[in-house]
Amino acid sequence: MLTIRNLNVHYGGIHALRGIDMDIPENKIVTLIGANGAGKSTTLRSIMGLTKISGGSIQYNGEELTMHKTKDIVEKGIVLVPEGRRVFPNLTVEENLILGAYSRKDKEGIKKDMDWVYGLFPRLKERLWQKAGTMSGGEQQMLAVGRGLMSKPKILMMDEPSLGLAPLLVKEIFNIIKEIHRQGMTILLIEQNAKAALEIADYGYVLETGAIVLEGKGKDLLTNDEVKNAYLGDAK
Amino acid sequence: LGIGYKIKIPEKRLTDSWEIEEKNGGIIKIGVFEPLTGGAASGGEMTLEGIQLANELFPEVLGKKIELVIEDNKSDKLEATKAVIKLIHEDHVKAIIGSYGSSLSMAAGEVVKKFKIPTVGCSPTHPMVTFNNPYYFRVCFVDPFQGTVIANYAVKELGAKKAIIVQDMAQDYSTGLSQYFIEAFIKLTGDVESIVSVISYVSGEQDFREKLTEIRDLKADVIFAPGNYIESAVFIKQAREMGINIPIIGGDTWETPTFIEIGGEAVEGAIFSTHFTAEVPITERSNLFLEAYRKKYNREANAFSALGFDAYMVLIDAIARANSANPEKIRDALANTKNFEGATGKITLDHNGNATKSAIIKKVEKGQFKYVTFVESIHP
Amino acid sequence: MTFQVFMQHLANGISLGSLYALIAIGYTMVYGILRLINFAHGDIFMIATYVAFYGVMLLGMQLWWIAFPAAIIFTYFFGRLVERAAYRPLRNSPRISVLISAIGVSFLIENLAIVIFGGRPKAFPIPPIFNKIIQIGDVSIVSITFFIPAITLALLVGLVYFINQTKTGMAMRAVSKDYEAARLMAIDVDKIISLTFGIGSILAAVGGIMWGLKFPQLVPLMGLMPGLKCFIAAVVGGIGDIRGAVLGGFILGLGEIMLVAFLPALTGYRDAFAFVLLIVILLIKPTGLMGQKLTEKV
Amino acid sequence: MRILKADNITMKFGGLVAVSQFYMELNKGEIVGLIGPNGAGKTTAFNMITGVYKPAEGRIFFQDEDKEVDITEYRPDEITKLGIARTFQNIRLFKELSVLDNVLIANHLRLKSDVFSSILRLPNYVKEEKEMYEKSIHLLEDVGLQDVMHEKSSSLPYGKQRRLEIARALATNPKVLLLDEPAAGMNPKESLELMDFVGDIRDRFQLTIFMIEHHMQVVMGICERIFVLDHGVTIAHGTPSEIQNNEKVIEAYLGVD
Amino acid sequence: MKKGRLELNIIAMALFIGLLFLFRITFDSYKMKILNLCGIYIILGLSLNLINGFTGLFSLGHAGFMAVGAYTAGLLTMSPAMKEMNFFMKPIVPFLAEVEWPFFPALLMAGVISALMGFLIGSPVLKLKDDYLAIATLGFSEIIRVIFTNTQSLTNGALGLKGLPIYTNIWWSWGAAIFTILFMVFLIKGSYGKALKAIREDEIAAEAMGINLFKHKVMSFTMGAFFAGIGGALLGNLLGTIDPNMFRFVLTFNILLIVVLGGIGSITGTVISAVVVTVAMEALRVLDETINFGFVTIQGIPGMRMVIFSLLLMIVILFYQQGLMGTKEFTWDWFFNGKGFRKTLKKEVK
Ligand SMILES: Nc1ncnc2c1ncn2[C@@H]1O[C@H](COP(=O)(O)OP(=O)(O)OP(=O)(O)O)[C@@H](O)[C@H]1O
Ligand SMILES: Nc1ncnc2c1ncn2[C@@H]1O[C@H](COP(=O)(O)OP(=O)(O)OP(=O)(O)O)[C@@H](O)[C@H]1O
Ligand SMILES: CC(C)C[C@H](N)C(=O)O
Ligand SMILES: [Mg+2]
Ligand SMILES: [Mg+2]
C-alpha cells in the first residue's frame, strides 16, 4: 500500500535518513523501533510531507507522494498522530475532534465516529468543553489519538502514542490499536515500548542512525537476540 | 604607522573654503530646502514653483549659471537641519532659500548661522526666524504686523468685540501670531476681557468636536484660528457642522488649494491675511511674474509662489551687487537690499533681515480665494 | 454641563467608539490567528481610503455606492497580497522576524503612498447621505454618526458567528497555534491565513472609508495613529476576542471624548489617554477585559 | 530526618480540583515515587512544591539546615535557592544555548559577585567564574555529556536532553530533586540505565529524590516509598510491594496483567 | 581569553582612534555629522539589543527614554539666556532657569534620569509578556512624549528646545559608543549575561534554575534605558534642537530595524548595521534629487529615497532573516584561522 524506496533526509549537515526502504502492506500493523534520534519520527514526517526529503520515493498505491502538500496526503487517507501530541491548546476537546474530521464531508459519519472515539476514551467525553491546552499530558495523548481517528484514515501512523501514559492506558492504547486494525485500518507504529509494539505488529523494522539494520516479522524480532539486547532490556 | 602607505593630509579643509567652486566651471549653486512631503507639502510645492520659475527666467548671474539644489525637509524639523547641513557641506551651495513654515526655518537657522551661509526665507513670518541671526533674511512681513492687520480687520470691518483663539501648540507660527493678535485685539477694543477663550491643539489633530462643544455657547463675534491649512480646514468644517456660524479668520498659511479641497463648502467666507494677490499687481515685476506663471503653470499665481520668486530675485540681485559668489559678500549685499522691486512689492531688508511689506486680506468665495482689501505696511 | 452638551458628547463618543471598534476587530482577527501585531493594518486602512477617493474621483460622486464597495474588494486583495509578500515567506521564522517584517512592510506602504499619492493631503469626498446634519433638540449630529455603529454591529455579529461556529473559523483558531498540526488535519494553512488577512483587510477598508467620511482628509500617514489606538482597543478588550475588541473600542472612544469634555484642562493629554488606559488595564488584568485567564500548563 | 513536607495542599483550576489535600513527607536521602493515572495531579503537585502554582489550601515546609521554613508563598527561584530543584515533564532546556551554558546558568544562583564586578571582571568574580566552569564540566563528565558540551542543547537526542535536564538541576546544588517522568521517551534499556543513574546521583550528591514515573520497572526498582494519586486524591501510600498489591491502585492504575 | 588577545584589542583600539583622527581631518561637517550619528545609533542599537535581543523582552519604548535623556541633557546644558528665549510662552520652572552644566555631568545625569525612568516603568510593566509588554512599553514612550508636549514650563511643550549647545563630537559619540560596546561585551560574556539569555530562552525554566526573573529583567531594562538616555542626550546636543515629535515611536522602529538587520542577539551585528543603516539613509538621498547626466536629467522624486530604503529593508528581512550576523560575534580567530565568524555557542574552555 505504502512503498518507501531509498529515502534520504538531511537536516543541514546531519544525514538523518540514509536510504530507507520500507513496505507497509494493506491492513497490516507495521512497527518501527529504534533508539532516540535514530530517525523514526523523521521517516513519518517525510511521508507526510512535513520534512523536505533530499532523495528517494514514497508511493501510495503506486502514486508518488513526494511532491504533494501535506493537506493532499491527508486527504488521500494517510494520517499522522504526531510526536508530542500537538493538540490545539486554545480549542476545546470537541473542536479538536471536529478538526480531525476537517477533510470529511459526511456529517452523519462524523457524528458516529465522534461517539466511537468517546467510547474509546470516556475521559474525553467528560472534558468536552475543556481547552485542550490545560489537560494533563496523558489526556492530551488520548485526544491526539482520537483526533487522528476522526479523519477515518486508510493508514494511521502513530509516533510514540504511549509516551507518558499510565500503564493502564498504555494497555488501553494497544488494545485500541488492535481494535482499529481489526476494523480494517492499516497502521504504522513507532514505539519505545518495543516489546508491546512487536507483540501486536505483523512486521517490524529496526532503525539505527538513519538506516534500517534489521527487519522481519514481529514475532521473529521479539526473539532476536540483538533486539532483545538493545531494545527490550531483557538481557540483564 | 608602519603600513607603508603615506596618507595625504590636505593642508586645509577643502570643503570649508569657498574658493573650490571657481574650479567648478561657471556654476553657482544655490540650495533650496522646502517641505515637499509631509504636512506642509502643499506650501513647499507652491513655493518651489516660484523659485524654479525665477530660475528659468533668470538663470544666470555674473555670467555664471545658477544651479538649484533642492532638498525635501519632509515638514520635519530634524530633516530640515539635516537638509541644510547637506546643502552646505555636500553641495557647497553659496546661499540657501527656504523654508515654508517658521518652525522649519528656525530649526535650520542655527546651522546657517554657524556655517555662515546667507539664507533667504520666502514666507516664514515668525519674528524669531531672523532674530539674532545675521545670516537669515526674509522677503515677507512678520507676524507682529500680520497679527495687527488681521485684528484691525476683525474689529473695524467685522465689528468684532469678543474673540476666541484657536492655536496650534506645535507651530511657532501659530502661537506667535495668536499672541500678537491678542495684544492688538485687546488694544483695539480696549477690553481686557475681549478674548473669551484660548483653545490649543497640536499639529495633526483631527477631531475638534469636543473643543467646539466647549466654545459653541460662548458669546463671541469671531474665531481667530491661525494654523496649518489642514487642521484649520478640518476645524472650520467641524465648527460649521456643529452650527457655529460666526466668522472664522486666520493667517497666511490658509492660501493653498488644499485648504479649500478639505474645507469644501464649510470654508466659504473664511477670511485671512496674506502677502500677495494676482488681482492687484503692485509692481512691474508682479506683472512679469504673473504672466510667466500663467504661461508655465496655466493658472493664477499664489502668494507663496510669488514669495519664492522674490526670494530668488533678491538673492541674485545681491550676488550681482556683491560681484562675487562668496557667501560673506553675498550676505553683506543682502543686508543692503533697498527698494528692490519684487513681485510682491518693494523690498527693503532691515537690520534684522526682515522685509517691510504690505498685507492683503482675502476671503474664500465660491471655492476661490478672493481679494478683499489691501493694508499698507507700517514702518516699525 | 448642560444635558444637551452632554448628549452631544455622548453621540460623538459612541460614533468614535464604534469606529475604533470596527478597526480593532480587524486587528484582533489577524492577531488571533497569526499572533502577529499587524503593524500594516493601519496602512491597509489608508490604502483603502485612497482607493475609495480615486474611485469617487473617477466615477463621480453619484456612484459612490459602486466606488466604496470596489475599494473594499480591492483592499481585500491588497491585504492578501501583503500577507503573501511579507508574511508568508516567514512562516517558519520566529515571531519577532514576522513582527519586524510587519513594521517593514508598513514603512514600505507608507513611503510608496507618499510617492504615488503625493505628500499633500487630499479631501475625502462625502456623499450627501452621510453628511446630513440632523438636529435633535439642541444636539446636531451628522448622519455618519449613526451609520458607523450600525455597520460595526452588523459586522460583529457576522464575524462572531463565522469564527465560532463554522469549520473554517475553527480552522483559523487551530492554525493560530500550530501550523504543522493544522496541516496534519488537511487544513490548507496558507489559504486560511490568507483568508484571515483578506477579512481583516475588509474590516480595515470599511473602517477607513468610515474614517474618511468622519475626518475627511487623506494623508499617507493617516493610518498610523488610528492603527495604534485601535490595536490598543483590541488589547484592552482582550486580544483575539472579537467582542473584546468592540468593548475596547467603545471604552477608548467614549473615554477620550469624555476626558476632553469633563476635564478640558487635560485636552493635551488626549492621545495619552489610550496608553494610560492600556497600561492600567494590563496591570490589573493582563489578558485584557474579556481575555480569559490561562495559567500556563507547566 | 524530614526534609520536605506538604501539608494537605490543594490546587483548583476553575471548578476542577486537580490535587486535593495532598499530604506528604520526604526524609533525607530517600527516593520516593509519585504515580497515578494521567491527569491525576502529579505534575500539579510538583508545580505547587516548586512554587510555579500557589496552592489554594495547605502549606509546604522545607527543612533548611536546622530550621523549618514555610515555603508556600515563596517564588520558584527562591525555592530553588533553598535547595529544591526539578526537571520538567515536557523538556524545558535553554534551546538555543550550548549544553555547557545550560549548566553554567544553573550555577548563577550561587554567584556572590554583583553585576558590576562581572562587567569589570574584578578578581572576586573571575575566581567564581572559574569555579563555575570547573564544576559544570565535572558535572557534565559525571552524566556523560562532556563530548557534546559545545553542542546546541536542542540538537541533542531526546534521551540526552533528559540527562542534561537532570545535570542542570544538579548544578543548582539541590538537597531535594524532583524528577517529572525522567524515563519518558526512553526505551526499556535506556530506562534501566536511567534507574541506575538516579540511584547513583542520590548517593553521590546526597540527594533526596521525589520522582513521577510511569515505567513501573523503574519505579518499583528504585523507589523506597510510593504515593499514588487518582483524581487528585491520594489513594495509596506505601512500599513498592504494598503498592503493587493494593486493590485500588491496581484498579485505577496498574491494571491486571 | 587567550594570550595576545589583550594586545590585539589594544592595537585595534589605537588604530581606530587614529582612524577617527583621520576622519576629523578629512571629513567635512556633513560627513562628521553622519559619523557622529553612527556612534549614537550604535549606542541606541546596543541598548535595545540588550533588552530585546539578549533578554528577550520585547520592548518598544526606546524613543521615550531617548526623549528623557535628550531633554535632561538639553535643559542642563543650555545657557540661561537661551532658555529665556525659548520659553517665551511660559517661563521655565525656576530651579532649571539658572543651571548650566558642562557636558559630561549632564550626559551622565541624562543616563541616570533615564535609567531611573526605566526602573520606575519597568517595575510594573515587566510583569507583562511578549506583545503585551511591547505595546505597554510603546504606550509609556508615547505617554512620555505627550507629557513633554504638555508640560510647557518644564520642556517648552510642543515648541521644543532650540539652541542646545552643540557639544557632541566624534570623541563624545564614539567614546560613548566604545564604552557601551565594552560594557555589553563584558556583561553578556559573564554569568549575568547568561542568566539574561536563559530568561530569553525559557522563563519558567530560568526561574526553576533559581534566577530571579524580576530582578534580572528590571536590571536589563534599566541598563538599556540608561544607554538609551545617553544616546538621546548625545543626539540632542548634536542636533541643537529637540522637540517631542522627534521621539515618536517611528524612532524606536528605526532602532529596532538596526538591531534586526544586524542580528538579534549579536553585538557585532548591531555595530555594523548601525553604521550601514545610518550611512545608507544619507547615501540614498541622491534619489530625491534631480540627477544631471549632462545629456539627460532625471527628475528627483521626493520620497523615493525612503521607498528604496524600505524596499532594501524588506529584502533583508525576507531573505536574510538572521540579519547580518545572526547571533554570531566577531572574534580574532576569524583573522587567524580564516574559519569565518564563530558561533557564540562554541565557548572555548581551558
Ligand atoms: N528539525 C531538525 N533539525 C536538525 N536536526 C534534526 C531535526 N529534527 C531531527 N533532527 C535530528 O535528526 C535525527 C533523527 O531525529 P528523529 O526525531 O527522527 O529521531 P527519532 O528516532 O524519532 O528519535 P526519538 O525517539 O527521540 O523521537 C536526530 O539526530 C535529530 O537530532
Ligand atoms: N493550568 C491548568 N489549567 C487548567 N487545568 C489544568 C492546568 N494544569 C493542569 N490542569 C488539570 O489538572 C489535572 C492534573 O494535571 P497534571 O498535569 O497534574 O496531571 P498528571 O498527573 O501530571 O498527569 P500526566 O501523567 O498525564 O502528566 C488535569 O486534569 C489537567 O487537565
Ligand atoms: C510659511 C508660512 C506660510 C506659514 C507661516 N507664515 C509660518 O511662518 O509658519
Ligand atoms: Mg521521535
Ligand atoms: Mg504530568
Automatic annotation (TrEMBL), chain A:
Quote the SMART domains the UniProt record gives: AAA
Domain ABC transporter, first and last residues per copy:
2-234
Q: Which Pfam family would be a valid example here?
A: ABC_tran
Q: Name one GO biological process term.
A: L-amino acid transport
Taxonomic superkingdom: Bacteria
Q: Which GO terms describe its molecular function?
A: ATP binding; ATP hydrolysis activity; branched-chain amino acid transmembrane transporter activity
Question: What keywords would UniProt list here?
Answer: Amino-acid transport, ATP-binding, Nucleotide-binding, Transport
- Tell me the protein family, please: Belongs to the ABC transporter superfamily.
Cross-referenced PANTHER family: HIGH-AFFINITY BRANCHED-CHAIN AMINO ACID TRANSPORT ATP-BINDING PROTEIN LIVF (PTHR43820)
Protein name as annotated: High-affinity branched-chain amino acid transport ATP-binding protein LivF
User: Species name for this entry?
Assistant: Thermotalea metallivorans
Please name the taxonomic classification of the source: Bacteria, Bacillati, Bacillota, Clostridia, Peptostreptococcales
From TrEMBL, chain C:
Topology of the protein relative to the lipid bilayer: Multi-pass membrane protein
According to the UniProt record, one GO cellular component term is: plasma membrane
Q: InterPro entries this protein is in?
A: ABC_transp_permease, BCAA_transport_permease
Main subcellular location: membrane
One biological process term from GO is:
L-isoleucine import across plasma membrane
Q: Which residues cross the membrane?
A: 6-27, 63-82, 94-119, 139-163, 192-213, 219-239, 246-266, 272-291
Give the subcellular location: Cell membrane
One Pfam family recorded for the sequence: BPD_transp_2
Task: Identify the domain of life.
Answer: Bacteria
Keywords, alphabetical: Amino-acid transport, Cell inner membrane, Cell membrane, Membrane, Transmembrane, Transmembrane helix, Transport
GO terms for MF: L-isoleucine transmembrane transporter activity; L-leucine transmembrane transporter activity; L-phenylalanine transmembrane transporter activity; L-valine transmembrane transporter activity
User: Is Cell inner membrane one of the keywords?
Assistant: yes
Q: Which family does it belong to?
A: Belongs to the binding-protein-dependent transport system permease family. LivHM subfamily.
* Name listed for the protein in its UniProt record: High-affinity branched-chain amino acid transport system permease protein LivH
Taxonomic lineage per UniProt? Bacteria, Bacillati, Bacillota, Clostridia, Peptostreptococcales
From TrEMBL, chain D:
Q: GO biological process: what's one of them?
A: L-alanine transport
Entry annotated with the keyword Nucleotide-binding: yes
- Give the source's domain of life in one word: Bacteria
**A single Gene Ontology molecular function, please?**
L-isoleucine transmembrane transporter activity
Q: Where is the ABC transporter domain?
A: 4-256
An annotated GO cellular component: plasma membrane
Write out the entry's keywords from A to Z: ATP-binding, Hydrolase, Nucleotide-binding, Transport
Q: Might you give the EC number(s) for this enzyme?
A: 3.6.3.-
- Which InterPro entries does this UniProt record tie to the protein? AAA+_ATPase, ABC_AA/LPS_Transport, ABC_transporter-like_ATP-bd, BCA_ABC_TP_C, P-loop_NTPase
Name used for this protein in its record: Lipopolysaccharide export system ATP-binding protein LptB
- Protein's gene: lptB_1
UniProtKB/TrEMBL annotation, chain E:
Q: Membrane-crossing residues?
A: 6-27, 34-54, 60-82, 103-126, 169-188, 218-239, 251-281, 301-320
What is this protein called in UniProt? High-affinity branched-chain amino acid transport system permease protein LivH
Q: How does it sit in the membrane?
A: Multi-pass membrane protein
**GO MF term set:** branched-chain amino acid transmembrane transporter activity
Keywords from the named record: Cell membrane, Membrane, Transmembrane, Transmembrane helix
Q: Which residues form a coiled coil?
A: none
Q: What InterPro entries does the database record attribute to this sequence? A: ABC_transp_permease (IPR001851), LivM-like (IPR043428)
**CDD domains with a match to the protein in the record:** TM_PBP1_LivM_like
Predominant location category: membrane
Q: Which GO terms describe its cellular component?
A: plasma membrane
Q: Could you tell me which PANTHER family the record lists for this protein?
A: HIGH-AFFINITY BRANCHED-CHAIN AMINO ACID TRANSPORT PROTEIN BRAE, HIGH-AFFINITY BRANCHED-CHAIN AMINO ACID TRANSPORT SYSTEM PERMEASE
In which organism is this protein found? Thermotalea metallivorans
Q: Where in the cell is it found?
A: Cell membrane
Q: Does the keyword Transmembrane helix apply?
A: yes
